[in-house]
Specification:
Layout: E1 6-10, E2 15-19, E3 24-29, E4 35-41, H1 46-50, E5 83-86, E6 96-104, E7 107-114, E8 119-127, E9 133-142, E10 157-162, E11 165-169, E12 176-181, E13 189-194, E14 199-204, E15 216-220, E16 231-236, E17 242-247, E18 255-261, E19 268-270, E20 275-277, E21 281-286, H2 289-304, E22 316-318, H3 320-323, H4 329-342, E23 346-349, H5 379-387, E24 391-396, E25 400-402, H6 406-410, E26 429-431, H7 437-454, E27 458-461, H8 481-499, E28 504-507, H9 517-520, E29 525-527, H10 534-544, E30 553-557, H11 571-578, E31 582-585, H12 594-616, E32 618-622, E33 625-629, E34 633-639, E35 643-645, E36 655-658, E37 664-666, H13 667-672, E38 675-677, E39 686-693
Parallel strand pairs: 22-23, 22-31, 23-24, 24-27, 27-28, 28-29, 29-30, 30-31
Antiparallel strand pairs: 1-2, 2-3, 3-4, 5-10, 6-7, 7-8, 8-9, 9-20, 9-21, 10-19, 11-18, 12-13, 12-15, 14-17, 15-16, 16-21, 17-18, 25-26, 32-33, 33-34, 34-39, 35-38, 36-37, 36-39
Bound molecules: (2R,3S,4R,5S)-2-(hydroxymethyl)piperidine-3,4,5-triol.
(2R,3S,4R,5S)-2-(hydroxymethyl)piperidine-3,4,5-triol is lined by residues 320, 350-351, 395, 462, 464, 508, 510-511, 527, 530.
Amino acid sequence: MSQVSSVSFDATSRTFLLTTPATSYALRIGADDVPHHLHWGGPLTLNQAATLPVYDGVISSFASTAGEELGVEGGPRFGVPSLLVRYADGSRGVEWVHEGHEIDGGRLRVYLRDRHYPLACTLHYTVHPDSDVIERSLTLRHSGPDGGDGGEGGAAIEILRCDAAAWCVPATSGVRLSHTVGQWSGETQLRRTEAPYAETVFTSRRGVSGHFGNPWLMVDAGDADESHGDVWSMVLAWSGSWRITAQRDHTGGPFTVSGGAGHEGLTWRLRPGEQHRTPVFAGQFSTGGFGGTSRGWHAYVAGHVLPRPDEPRPVVYNSWEATGWDVTPHGQRALAERAAGLGVELFVVDDGWFGARTSDRAGLGDWDPNPERFPDGLGPLVKEIRALGMRFGLWVEPEMTNADSDLYRAHPDWVLHMPHRRRTELRHQLVLDFSRPDVVEWAFGWLDRLVAAHAVDSLKWDMNRAFTEAGRPSSPDAERLWTDHTRGVYAVIDRLRAAHPGLRVEGCAGGGGRADLGMLARTDQTWISDNTDATDRIAIQHGYSQIYPARTMSAWATDSPNPYTGRTTPLRHRFHIAMAGALGIGGDLSRWSDAELSEARGLVAQYKEIRPVVQFGEQYRLDDAVQYLTDDRVVVIAWGRDRDLRLAGLAPAARYTDEATGAEHHGAALLAHGLRLRLPKEDAPSTVVRLRRL
Ligand code: DGJ
């Protein structure tokens, strides 16, 4: 069923209905003025929604907050509070008064305020015509007189927690959670686990969204698979510390998932007159299993998140694995010549081109080209790269400084630090405080000059360490920096892109430590892991693909044996696995034989041919294979073993021809019986099959 997305309201029952193409979501302002959750699932009419009862387990010593659109503290509520506040007189909690609403196309704003204290709150909901994703966020406003700090109305309100939204999933017999876990070099490992009867917290306390978990969750009754079953999913669009708390209790209430920026223990103050808007915590209900859920998110990211979704992502060469910090014009030129010969479109010089950056011990913060290595600046190298027909990209890590840098010597107060505490160095570096306007201004200034000086086409924005001693001694309200730092990063990238409309940006944080919708709203691609071993990548890419689309997934073919794992794999396998996303090459091309270069050239050409399908098609995760589908083309990247691989999403009545062999297949046969796969007889065999609809 396809409905027109809309927001409607029944004044008698005070029920709101959000309609998306295939789903409905309903809430009601109760007699107590509390926004109660009613429905999130298949289509309903407003009349039907108006008859739904609210979950009434709330008023009891034994109940939780389940069933509210935003759990708060106050009265008989004992579950997860999405909003925790403390007023100057020591009182806590909220007693809601409903102040009306506004509906504006696909947007709903519900206005609430506290019955006594100067706290106003707006619940925001947005639906889009082409997506079942519902965006939710919150605005908090201190409605007291501006500037005062004395009386009740004029004192700041302490915010102990301010989530963006709480999602309620209808009670089912089982509750299974899907999420990712990980580590450096092993990000986005998919896990599925029965939810305990408890509060389960998924979080990052590191200042970035992190390697160890990614800010999203899928919920199903335990019966969904790739192609069938009801799945409720929630994704937080935030790149700093975060927390998602899932709550399952025995009382039969809905399963609740509250999420937002920040982690436990952080407190900040909302000042009189101040307004705070949370990031978006978006949700999607799908009946199409995990595959349908992922395709829904991929389409949403392309349609409503990415700044330039339609750009075919270029084939990249990146020097990091080849040269490490040993960046010289001569070495880069030699790599660039070989890369250009392979058909590479964008050449990226990674870490080691600036300041005293000949190792990880010095130079971060000093963003002029290393004077010994580049006595004439970057200009001559950039010119040569362009003369070879490639675009030019540069690695930067703007949020960091080494203690051994001119920047730190001049501005030791610019890093996160606390009085009487050590300044912990990780990878010999310290975090610059991007919540400071002067630091943000400095960062924008040098980046703007650098991009302008060389018409830089692409930046790889890296971030290689977690926050520690996250304080700013001069600030009475220092814990705000946990969110303000992230907003500072966003502001610099947004401003840079506005000043240089052609600029593209790849997000990175020590591999995939900041892969999230917050970064994707202002970047084009994500470097998802420093692990480039094709075998390990299969699992990492599988986890990444749960939410994020292939066009955003940077993937390099590198050397064999792999420098991180030592594993030996055939060149074509390394390429095939990287061709499942935005292909790059990261190997030391100076050591590749003529035969390897020639094979690589053919594989790059093949990638360019399938690129529109991989980057812009719909993705189906199959058994040891990924399939991409557009109206008239199918690309299958398969590995593992010979078999008949059942394809997905095809038109049963259509016929398809294999572009390599000319063999013809009926859609129905490919769906029911499969495509006969014969893989090369080698270790780590793989293949790419291209079909065209007749
Ligand atoms: C971490 C990144 O993930 C790598 O690709 C590389 O850019 C290094 N940092 C450089 O220091």
